[in-house]
Amino acid sequence: MAVMAQICCPGAITLSVLYAFGPSFFVSVPWRLSLLLSWGAYLSVLFLIRFHAVLFPPRTTVVVVQRLMSFGAWGRRLAISTMESAVFAIQVDDRRVLAGCTSGVATFIVAIVAFWV
After folding, report:
1. What value, to the nearest 5°, has the Cα angle with vertex 21 and ends 99 and 37?
2. Most buried residue, 6, 70, 72, 111, by CB count within 10 Å?
3. What DSSP string describes 85-101?
4. Planar angle of CA 61, 64, 70, nearest 5 degrees
């Protein structure tokens, strides 16, 4: 169940955004697709760490899981969602901006993994 939620939830969210904007929106500027997929990767890593913490309670405490969810799920995911919503709503075409936003999401992925380790 944990693996299915880890793959299906971020995949469903990513596919719904892809379907809402249409493939031509992402094909015209390739960095848009990488930004969307990096957001899905962030959610997948967050679910992986959360389910690992829940499935192995002797190794992790409840406080660690709560901090992880407050740090990763609400803090960072809200920031990433706001950034991506603004980028997709304004339909930014500048590759430098999109590459910078994708790098920002990659930084968040590294931060959540570093928090876990």
Report:
1. 40
2. 72
3. HHHHHHT---HHHHHHH
4. 145
Q: At what angle do helices 95-116 and 30-55 cross, to 10 degrees?
A: 10
Kindly state the helix (H) or strand (E) to which residue 66 belongs, with its residue range.
helix 62-68
Q: What is the number of structural domains in the chain?
A: 1
Percent of the chain with pLDDT over 70: 93
Q: How does the average pLDDT of the chain come out, rounded?
A: 80
State the average pLDDT over residues 69-80: 75
How many CB atoms sit inside 10 A of residue 109's CB?
21
- Cα separation, 79 vs 114, whole angstroms: 18
d(CA 11, CA 31): 18
